[in-house]
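Quiz preparation item.
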């Protein structure tokens, strides 16, 4: 199979590293993976950076299919995720059972870590505004441009991290408290497709097909994601 370049959202990093990429390599596939938040990858594509396939939020894939950057005929629905909270391993777990208790946990935290560029961070920033606590939380927040927010728990810079559960699970030395309360939860769908005109179309199709196989779907579940139905 021809080697190709995949630009991929961080939400699926854990199942890809554990299962998807090793299995594809064992079958003879060769991929260069560029990891990043969906918004950053969209910017790279807009600047003309080369790629053969992408795996991003469904909304981003919709837009890229509409402007013909992606070949909609190759599109595959991959998984859905939910937002959650992590704390340093062994520390007290805040109450996330209701919107009110979640709101209080955010206010009580010494510093909440979230990502400026990721889909989760963009949603969370808007949620803080809607909850009326944006100024109080931002005043003591640890905001990263991209990457895994739970790393800031390990470094001691924050005592609460917010991100998609699958991304929180990538970092060792932390405890996943749980998902956001349902009333403020945002489930995000992820899709993948080939870049229009990619010369590695056959290899890309092989990878996309592998994402719906039983082993890949089991890896998604183990890493906090729900396979697409």
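Solution:
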């Amino acid at each position: 199979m021809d080697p190709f370049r995949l630009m991929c959202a961080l939400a699926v990093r854990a199942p890809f590293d554990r299962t998807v990429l090793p299995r594809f390599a064992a079958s003879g596939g060769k991929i260069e993976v560029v990891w990043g938040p969906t918004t950053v990858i969209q910017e790279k594509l807009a600047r003309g950076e080369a790629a053969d396939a992408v795996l991003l939020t469904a909304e981003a894939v919709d837009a890229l299919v509409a402007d013909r950057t992606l070949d909609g005929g190759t599109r595959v629905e991959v998984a859905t995720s939910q937002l959650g909270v992590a704390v340093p391993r062994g520390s007290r777990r805040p109450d996330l059972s209701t919107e009110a208790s979640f709101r209080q946990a955010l206010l009580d935290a010494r510093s909440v870590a979230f990502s400026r560029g990721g889909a989760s961070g963009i949603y969370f920033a808007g949620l803080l505004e809607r909850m009326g606590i944006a100024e109080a939380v931002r005043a003591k927040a640890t905001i990263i441009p991209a990457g895994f927010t739970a790393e800031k728990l390990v470094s001691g810079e924050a005592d609460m991290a917010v991100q998609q559960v699958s991304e929180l699970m990538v970092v060792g030395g932390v405890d996943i408290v749980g998902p956001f309360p349902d009333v403020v939860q945002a489930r995000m769908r992820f899709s993948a497709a080939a870049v229009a005109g990619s010369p590695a179309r056959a290899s890309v199709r092989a990878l996309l097909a592998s994402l719906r196989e039983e082993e890949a779907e089991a890896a998604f579940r183990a890493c906090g994601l729900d396979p697409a139905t």
